[in-house]
Each structure stands twice: as C-alpha cells, then as structure tokens.
Amino acid sequence: MIDVGYAASPALSDINADGDEELLLGSGQQGSGARLILFENDGDALSPRLVEKDTDYLNLSAADYEKISPQFIDLNKNGLQDLLIKKNTTGQQLVDVYWHTNNPLQPYESTNMATILTPVLGIHDNPYFYFSGDKLSILIGRNTGRLSKYINQGSVENPQWELINDAFLDIIDDYKSRNITVSIADMDGDGKEDLLRYDDSGMLRIYSDYKNTADLQENLIQNKQTLAGYNSSFGTDANIAVSYVTGSKLPSIIMGLKSGGIQMLSNIEDEQQKVDLEIKVSLFPNPVGLNKALNLVANQDVEMVLYDVWGHPLSENILLIKGSVKQLDLTALRAGLYLIAVQNNLGDKSSFKFVLID
Predict the structure, then answer these.
(1) Is residue 46 pLDDT above 70, yes or no?
(2) With contact defined as beta carbons under 8 Å apart, do 238 and 247 qualify?
(3) CATH: 1.20.120, 2.115.10, 1.10.10, 3.30.310. Which one for 9-272?
(4) Nearest to residue 269, comparing CAs of 261, 260, 277, 259?
(5) 58-111, pLDDT tens digit by residue?
(6) What CATH number should be reported for the domain whose range is 281-356?
(7) Sign (positive/negative) of CA torsion 160, 173, 115, 89?
C-alpha cells in the first residue's frame, strides 16, 4: 500500500524512458519537511508494479515547504516532459519548473530549474497548467470553490497572465465545493478533451468535451454487482491526476488523499472499445413481487424487448443506457417466468430471465 502520511499529490510520467509510467508523489508536512517520493515501475505497461525508489526525490525535504504538488507538462514544447513543483512555503504558494535535462538517467536537477511567475495563489488553491491552443494557460481551483482561467500572453520566461474567466464552466464560489482540483484528458477516447473535477463536496465529475458542449457526468463509479453508477467520496483536500500506468487505451483516475494514501479508478470505458464485449444486464430484485418494479442496468447501450415464456412480445423496444437504472413496470403481468431480449448497435444479442411471484 502506498502512503506518504499526509496530503498525497500524484503525478505520473515515463520519467526514465523505459516505456511505462512512474509515480511521483508529493506530500505535506506541518511546518516544513514536505517531500517528493519516486515510485518506479518495476513491471511493465501491462503488469505495473510500483516500488518506492527514492524517498526524497530532488532532496526537497530540507527546504521550508509545507506541501508539494508535482505536475508534468512539456512547458517549452521540445517533446520532453518538464516537472512543475507547486510548493507552499512561508504562507504563500510558488511554482518552480525543473526543465528536462534530456538525460533519462537524471532527467531533473536542482541546477536546471526556475521559478515561474503566476497569478496570485493562496496556499489552498490548486493550479493546473495546460496549453489552450499554443498558449500556456492555468486553471486555478480556488479554496472558495470557483474555477478561474488565465492565459499567458507573454513568454514562459516572462509571463503576462490575463484573466479570461473567473467562473470557468460556470463553476462559482460554493462553500460545500471548496478546494476544487482539476485535470484534463480524453477520458472516453472520442478525440475530445474532457475536464475532471473533484472538490470537498465529495463529488467526482467529468465535463465531457469541455471546450464545446461541457456535458456534465456524475456517478462515475460502477457497482460491479448491479452495474449502476454511483458516487463515492474521497474526503476533503484530495488531489486528482490521470494515468496510463495500467497499459489501458484510456486513462485511469488517480486520487491523492489528504490522509496520505492514493486510490486508482480504472477506466471501464476501455472494455467498451472491444468489439466482442459481452452484453451484461443486471436484473434486480429477481424474483420480483407482483405490483413491484424490476430494475435493469446494462454494461453498454442496448435495446430490450420483454417476452413471455411462449415468446410473445409484451413491450415495444426500450432503450437501456449504459450504467443507468431503468425501472420496468410489471403491474399488468401475472406471476410466471419472463424473458428480456437485448441487442446492441453491433447486432450482438443476449437474453435474461426473471421470475414474477405472488
């Protein structure tokens, strides 16, 4: 189990250029002594095995830092991932960049770093750096709950930050949703970037295609038994990152917890990329009593038809949306055995039985 004691903040990248991702985990420490811990992947992209390699990466524990949050980004666009260190010290938050040395054996050195001028950051704000077109941008999750967007109209060395939107995606101050943290990735493989959001409300959210439609998705965790989506809180002051450490086509979500541990959410959409994905439909309760509703949840979008035991159709086509609970009204039916026939958009078919009892 990976645990750094307090305020875990994950970032993942192929640090040693061996073809799989390593984990760099920032930590917190009351007063001073926060550090970076490097976990190398001793497995491979298909069978990862993260092993603690350096308990004080870049020797930052001796500095006067109360909290360290890393982020990888190719800041100078030379094809190499630079390392950003967001650090809390003496009541303020500063950001340093460690430029990649082009040496995979020692990619980052204290002699090859600089401090980046940023908009004013509170110690509880969560800045996320990314490129909007060809311009360096920052989304700042404010301690008060809102999300601010800035674009750099200058250079990396001499930035000029312009406030574009102080309530990006209409995310405004909200006491229940403080300490917002975000990340950007194509979570569903549709070629469009999505924005992940987590805050003190305990809700994990995705804004799909955030540059255009920004469709909000919630209840992102799937119950393996019922296949239904639900939400599970990761506590307050959590940090979010995305990763391909499992070798999947689509990224997983890595949550750094205030308690010091991490949790990984594997992307079940990866299964959806497989043409031969078996159709599964959960029916509950089964058996079901008369005058009760039957709940159905499918692992992919399918159309269903209800049949009696003699094969007579009792319904029109009904759409089951992946992960959503559909209630089937059975009040007009008698006790007996019934069949649910389903078909997906590839033409694959399956059937499921349930019993209606007195």
Answers:
(1) no
(2) no
(3) 2.115.10
(4) 277
(5) 999 998 899 999 999 999 999 899 999 999 988 899 999 999 998 888 999 999
(6) 2.60.40.10
(7) positive
Closest CA to 66 of 38, 98, 27, 36: 27
Residues with Cβ within 8 Å of 133's Cβ and at least 6 positions away in sequence, in order, are: none
Dihedral sign for Cα atoms in the order 199, 203, 206, 210: negative
Compute the C-alpha angle 220/224/228, nearest 5°: 50
Residues 6 or more apart in contact with residue 272 via CB below 8 angstroms: 300, 322
Supply the pLDDT for residue 270. Answer: 59
Strand order in the sheet with 336-343: 288-289, 349-357, 336-343, 302-308, 318-320
Q: Tell me how far CA of residue 72 lies from CA of 21, 52, 86, 169, 293, in angstroms.
A: 12, 19, 11, 24, 50
Which own/partner contact pairs does 80-86 have at CB distance under 8 Å and 24+ positions apart?
80/107, 81/13, 81/14, 83/24, 83/107, 83/108, 84/116, 84/129, 85/26, 85/36, 85/58, 85/60, 86/127
Encode burial over 341-352: b for 16+ CB neighbours within 10 A, e otherwise.
bbbbeeeeebeb
Which residue is associated with the tokens 């909007």? 132
> pLDDT digits over 222-237, tens only?
877 777 788 889 999 9
pLDDT at 275: 42
SS3 72: strand
> How far is residue 86 from each of residues 67, 140, 202, 229, measured CA to CA in Å?
8, 12, 23, 34
Q: In whole angstroms, give the CA distance from residue 72 to residue 79.
A: 12
Domain boundaries, the chain: 9-272, 281-356
Does pTM top 0.70 for this prediction? yes
Of the chain, the percentage scoring pLDDT greater than 90 comes to: 67
Per-residue pLDDT reduced to its tens digit, 141-167: 999 999 999 999 999 989 999 999 999
Task: Give the tens place of pLDDT for each residue, 269-300.
Answer: 655 554 456 788 888 888 999 888 899 988 78
Q: Does position 246 have pLDDT exceeding 90, yes or no?
A: no
